[in-house]
Specification:
- The chain is α/β, with parallel strands linked by helices.
- It has three domains: about 240 residues, FAD/NAD(P)-binding domain (3-Layer(bba) Sandwich); about 55 residues, no CATH class; about 100 residues.
- The protein is about 25% helix and about 25% strand.
- It is built from ten helices and 19 strands.
- A hairpin with a 2-residue loop joins strand 15 and strand 16.
- The structure holds flavin-adenine dinucleotide (FAD).
- The site of flavin-adenine dinucleotide (FAD) has 42 residues, from helix 1, strand 13, strand 17 and helix 10.
């Protein structure tokens, strides 16, 4: 894909049909669909580059293998966008490095094996009929690097990973939206009709529609319009092993479902990630890394070592040293039910929310952006929207997780 010019501190437009706050994958995909719908769209991004906060720390994986029908449908929508990215954006031969090598969930617990049967049945009922339930032996026959301790597996070959950088810049290149870098939203002005303007550190943009797509900062941005969002932030790490010849290049994303540790091939090595429980945090521009993370996932003695289900990592640890490792951390932005908030914000006309993807914004953002724009232009209604903000309001508010997080 050729280089895309994004205006660095481009001239501030005085007026826009919609202003999107945040230039991560969620804001940029929303901008693409807004601009395709004929709206004069402006993205304000505080940082020096698009996609440089949470989006940059993603493991870049996508899956349809969720447990709720709503999320399955959302992710299938994104996978459709990824699969036809060149047609969708109009960029001929766009290469987003799409690798559909599958997601493989594994357990060594016989109790969990029973639950696997139920999960796969639910997925089949939701229309995801290509999820396979495998015994330990069937899984090992297909993926010989697996441990003899595994008793059951769930697998879907159409899941995989891609280059989020290419997706993000494909959306930029395929849209007519204006992307303003180093431009921070500082205020949202309201009048009797609702949203009236976005105040930035470089001046005011008059608009009747604002989209909050500020990732971990979404709570702060929504407060500018007097709205409190039920979002929690948790730090997550991603470890890159730059070179490791033991990693099978055709392996799927391989998940130890008993501990949450997962890895996949990347370049000449692999990416390894895990969600460790930590105290909720404040949003951060720079998320500090904990260098004990590599030991937690690579030391064969660690209870959550990647070698537990994939013994190759027990051999590989001898080959690893700090110069072969690259560690990064970012923040997951959670909602109480672990599903995103996509839609209008009741109470403030013109305020729209696209956030709270709970660790799945790279995969959910593209279809989430498409759906939000359908709501904005009135093609769909919030009463039929499973990701409506309304579900968190009132006495029947949904507060229980509907999805487990990796
Ligand atoms: C370690 C790790 C691994 C992950 N792996 C995956 C994965 O494999 N698959 C997946 O789907 N998801 C994954 N995720 C989650 C995914 O990265 C996020 O859900 C997604 O990147 C969120 O995108 P976003 O655009 O909402 O947020 P961000 O990328 O954080 O973008 C928000 C932007 O808003 C800007 N902003 C904030 N406040 C303002 C303001 N006042 N004015 C202007 N701009 C502002 C910020 O500067 C930022 O650029 C992972 C996350 C982590 C941390």
């Amino acid at each position: 894909m050729g280089q895309v010019m994004v205006p660095l501190k481009g001239e501030l437009p005085k007026i826009a049909d919609v202003v999107i706050v945040g230039g991560g994958i969620v804001g940029v995909s929303t901008a693409f669909f807004c601009s395709r719908a004929g709206l004069k769209t402006v993205v304000v991004e505080r940082r020096e580059a698009l996609g440089s906060l949470t989006t940059a720390s993603s493991t870049e994986c996508f899956r349809a293998q969720f447990e709720s029908a709503e999320n399955i449908e959302l992710m299938l929508g994104s996978i459709e966008i990824f699969s036809h990215f060149d047609e969708m954006t109009g960029i001929r031969d766009a290469d987003i490095s799409l690798r559909q090598q599958g997601y493989l969930y594994l357990t060594t617990e016989s109790q969990q094996a029973e639950i696997y049967g139920e999960i796969v049945e639910t997925q089949h009922k939701a229309g995801l009929t290509d999820v396979e339930l495998l015994s330990g032996d069937e899984a090992r026959a297909r993926f010989p690097y697996l441990s003899p301790q595994i008793v059951a597996a769930r697998y879907r070959g159409g899941d995989g990973w891609l280059s989020v950088h290419e997706v993000l810049y494909g959306f930029v290149k395929g849209s007519q939206a204006e992307f303003l870098l180093q431009t921070a939203a500082m205020g949202i002005a309201l009048d009797t009709e609702g949203v009236a303007a976005v105040e930035t550190d470089r001046g005011t943009i008059e608009t009747r529609r604002v989209v909050v797509a500020a990732g971990p900062f979404s709570r702060r941005v929504a407060r500018l319009a007097g709205v409190e969002l039920p979002l929690t932030l948790l730090r997550r790490h991603r470890l890159a092993v730059l070179r490791c010849d033991l990693v099978p290049r055709r392996a799927p994303l391989t998940i130890d479902d008993d501990t949450g540790v997962h890895w996949r091939p990347e370049g000449a090595g692999a990416l390894i990630a895990k969600a460790f429980e930590e105290e909720p945090e404040e949003p951060k521009e720079v998320v500090p890394r904990d260098w004990s993370f590599p030991a937690m996932v690579l030391d064969p003695q660690s209870p959550c070592s990647a070698g537990r289900v994939s013994p190759l990592w027990n051999r590989a640890t001898n080959l690893l040293n700090k110069s072969n490792l690259d560690l990064c951390a970012g923040q997951y932005t959670y909602t109480p039910d672990h599903m995103p908030i996509i839609g209008p914000c009741s109470g403030v006309a013109g305020l729209f929310l696209n956030t709270g993807y709970s660790g799945h914004g790279m995969m959910g953002g593209p279809e989430g952006g498409r759906r939000l724009v359908q709501l904005i232009v009135g093609k769909t209604s919030d009463s039929d929207n499973p990701f409506s903000f309304e579900r968190f309001l009132g006495p029947r508010a949904v507060l229980e997780p509907k999805e487990r997080i990796l």
